[in-house]
Amino acid sequence: MSTEPELIELRELVPPGRPGLGRTRLERANALRIAPASTHKPARQQAPGRGHHFQPAGPTTHTWCDLCGDFIWGVVRKGLQCTHCKFTCHYRCRALVCLDCCGPRDLGWDPALERDTNVDEPVEWETPDLSQAEIEQKIKEYNGQINSNLFMSLNKDGSYTGFIKVQLKLVRPVSVPSSKKPPSLQDARKGLGRGTAVRRRTSFYLPKDAVKHLHVLSRTRASEVIEALLRKFLVVDDPRKFALFERAERHGQVYFRKLSDDEHPLRLRLLAGPSEKTLSFILKENDSGEWNAFTMPELHNFLRILQREEEEHLRQILQKYSRCREKIQEALHACPLG
Q1: pTM above 0.85, yes or no
Q2: Which of 112, 161, 211, 303 is most buried by a 10 A CB count?
Q3: What is the pLDDT of residues 275-317, one digit of tens each?
Q4: Do strands 160-168 and 280-285 pair parallel, antiparallel, or not at all (unpaired)?
Q5: Residue 155, pLDDT score
Q6: DSSP codes, 112-157
Q7: What angle separates helix 265-272 from helix 132-145, to the nearest 10 degrees?
Q8: 174: closest CA among 308, 58, 12, 66?
Q9: Nearest to 193 by CA among 239, 156, 243
Q10: What 3-state class would DSSP assign to 71?
Q11: Cβ neighbours of 94 (radius 10 Å)
């Protein structure tokens, strides 16, 4: 039996023909068990998403499901990805996708600049170690070149603060809690939010021209910038689903480089100056297929999962060939001798 308290609606009944007189009694109007947390109206059933053309994802696609948020693991059944909008999900989540396909997304890249660009080409960036006097001089030069109030300032402890501008060039959708109520300050202090499981999620595509300015310290790491951006937009996806890139134009070509988690974007901004052609920051999906983004326990867990998948795949193959062998032997026994 359920341990939930039974909430019963009672109404006062008056004996027929004697209004206002006699003894009244209470009777159940609706004897329904109602869970205390489920007094709201049931959610309306959403229609399945239209326009998607899902195909098996490649074996090097190490990413997270755009529907449930869990990591997509495996080799044989890696997951599914829409060939149009790049929506990526588990096989088990395919039937639950309610977001319509938006088609191929034009994120505003200039093909004339990027036609002959090797995006993955490593570029040697000058990141010299500056003395305190050189940092102070760089900050003065930087503030003298900008035409806004987004200045850098030197702190007493030798660090400095400033603003970085990040463009969000996301092809795939992001997920936010389906509840319209934003997280409270108490929730943030308790660490609730992305660290806890989100039961109901809503996916949507960010506008292609989404831009955010962040006020950061010189010691703020790239991974912290990603987490801050996700908090700004209330995104509950795993931060490792995304990566921060720097974009630079050189000799008529555009180069991209993914920042490591421990790099400091504000320091790169100071060294490059305020020109966005020289250097700009872009948030993109982290679909490079690198395993070094995971912790040691996670990698060991993935190895165990892959071992179970391998054993199941071998069992299915052996069973398939065993059935084929049995049918051939039955055919041999049925054939007349001679």
Answers
A1: no
A2: 161
A3: 888 899 999 988 755 666 666 776 777 778 778 877 887 888 8
A4: parallel
A5: 92
A6: HHHTT--TT-------PPPPHHHHHHHHHHHHHH-SSS---EE-TT
A7: 70
A8: 66
A9: 239
A10: strand
A11: 16
